[in-house]
């Protein structure tokens, strides 16, 4: 049986179910306990699990990231919440040097089964230092996994898989999706990391998107269908590992590809997918792969300027029309 | 109330064994003759290993490493009180302490020559990997300590780092977390006076680094790091406090980096020999030997024999290392993930086919 719940509640259900299942799991971060989470994702968890497992920290991202890594190395299963992935930049050495490389650098001895999670991307007038999309920058590092759910059911299923994973998993959530409602099964389920999901089918163009931009892609596809252009919309769900098989299968059918990515264009997730599509589907493409990214500027603060800078359905529609001009 | 702000820039140095080898019996830790001999052997072995590894590096057999000449008492003293259930988080200069903890010298040679067999701690040795990024390992060490507390274990973690690491934000965040959460850990700051070419006076406005611990609410002590007995006394107390749930301690071990920062360093560029000279007199081995000889715990002959035996053990380790040091290029894809993801399987296939065609030739 499924019921409709919010994205944030799906995240919380994932954490509480896994904490009941495995006593090694705990949640640590700023404001996660007394305050129920800055975005109320951990609402009620302090009462349910107590202060030993729902741990408020000083404002010290480097500190609690590093602590979590040590705790994971000695056999616990930490979930580390960044209020925003923007703030993870101050702890980059812990997050990018220690977590993903420890297994390698200890010759297989020390795994780091940790989940780092929090808001990624523009939250709505948060200013340029607080609107980071870290996926393009962080996905460059081997040794980590990265998930980026777009719907509540995947948020729950992917986060549960992440908590059980033996490798470090970065879970990127969009603040703008936290109140989104969607059907989530009541019974236990896991969403495998590394598998994309086709959200809509069509034969004319493949749109690949991750996280919040999946919604822009779906909106664009609905609009394009009115003028007879039918799109496959692929919700990537995981960035590392990347499900290239699903993407390539679709491109071989549609012969056109648009990638929607909420980070900056230079050396981005969209660039990577574009390169890979051109490597594996070179002879299938009727046009170059089109990328829809943020404009290549820091996020503006004014609401209308911020909207203009971000990807949205209108930009996706233009890109699809350009990629399918020969239809 | 007085409006004059409070300032603390130094605290006394704990010394038990002075440079002449005289012991302050009121402060001496209760050690048996056998324990004293084991400490001495470990310090001699550390020095022999250090000088042999330096020679091997100069002959092209080792990678870059950080020698620890003159820091043997700090090295061995900090791990002496640890049991097998306690954890040790070394820094990259801690190979003397690692030998004490149970790492074989041939494995440490493999490590510093770059072979991955060198990296995992031996079975049953609860040591963390060190970090080359200064101070990066201190937070994970506190994480292990907090994990111990969560698992209701009554053990402790000793984490070693240098004076240079005291300038890192991560280390200061580690102090704060450990203090607030009463993490069972012992911070050993091995103050050897230099962050590569930057002297302590350019790193800190205080004479002592231990005063910083006090600001975090951490009981802190300044110890003569060339005095093995003071090191044992201070670290034993700190480890007992940690295990008893009383929280962390900071030990500033004052020593001196008599040799190179690393084998890539040339100290003649930034310091004169006369800076180093006084530290020959403060040598941790020399004063310990004087004491052991005077108390007839070890005779001069026995000390010479120990030196020969240690040299022999180092040479045997070198021979084993030479047997074991074989590169297996197909292994570079191992241990990136617990289970290899599809893209890495593809990349490994390409890499192996290139190796089959071209070998390791560029």
Give the topology, please.
The complex is a heterodimer of chains A (327) and B (362).
Chain A: E1 2-6, H1 7-21, E2 25-29, H2 45-49, E3 54-56, H3 61-73, E4 77-84, H4 92-105, E5 115-119, H5 135-138, E6 145-147, H6 152-164, E7 169-173, E8 181-185, E9 197-200, E10 205-209, H7 213-226, E11 231-235, E12 238-240, H8 244-254, E13 257-260, H9 269-280, E14 290-292, H10 303-309, H11 313-323
Parallel strand pairs in A: 2-3, 2-4, 4-5, 5-7, 6-7, 10-11, 10-13, 13-14
Antiparallel strand pairs in A: 1-8, 6-12, 9-11
Helix pairs in contact in A: 1-6, 3-4, 7-11, 8-9
Chain B: E1 13-14, H1 33-58, H2 72-79, E2 87-89, H3 95-101, H4 105-113, H5 138-150, E3 157-162, H6 169-180, E4 185-191, E5 194-195, E6 198-199, H7 210-215, E7 220-224, H8 228-243, E8 249-254, H9 273-281, H10 284-294, H11 300-324, H12 342-358
Parallel strand pairs in B: 1-7, 2-3, 3-4, 4-8, 7-8
Antiparallel strand pairs in B: 5-6
Helix pairs in contact in B: 1-2, 1-3, 1-10, 1-11, 2-3, 2-8, 4-11, 5-6
Fold and architecture overview:
The complex is a heterodimer of chains A (327) and B (362). Chain A contains eleven helices and 14 strands. Chain A is an alpha/beta fold and 327 residues long. Chain A has a seven-stranded mixed β-sheet with strand order 3-2-4-5-7-6-12, with helices on both faces. Chain A has a five-stranded mixed β-sheet with strand order 9-11-10-13-14, sandwiched between helices. In chain A, strands 1-8 form a two-stranded antiparallel sheet. In chain A, helix 7 links the parallel strand 10 and strand 11 (231-235). In chain A, helix 3 (61-73) runs parallel beside helix 4 and helix 7 crosses helix 11 (313-323). The radius of gyration of chain A is 19 Å and the shape is globular. Chain B has twelve helices and eight strands. In chain B, helix 6 links the parallel strand 3 and strand 4. The model of chain B has no long low-confidence stretch (mean pLDDT 95). The longest helix of chain B is centred in the N-terminal third of the chain and has 26 residues, at 33-58. In chain B, the strands form two sheets. In chain B, strands 1-7-8-4-3-2 form a six-stranded parallel β-sheet, sandwiched between helices. In chain B, strands 5-6 form a two-stranded antiparallel sheet. Chain B folds into two domains: 12-324, Rossmann fold (3-Layer(aba) Sandwich); 327-362. Chain B is α/β, with parallel strands linked by helices. The A-B interface holds A 26, 52, 57-58, 60, 62-76, 93-94, 97-98, 102-111, 142-143, 145, 166-167, 194, 240-242, 244 and B 87, 116-121, 128-129, 131, 133, 136-148, 150-151, 169-170, 173-174, 176-177, 180, 334-339, 341-344.
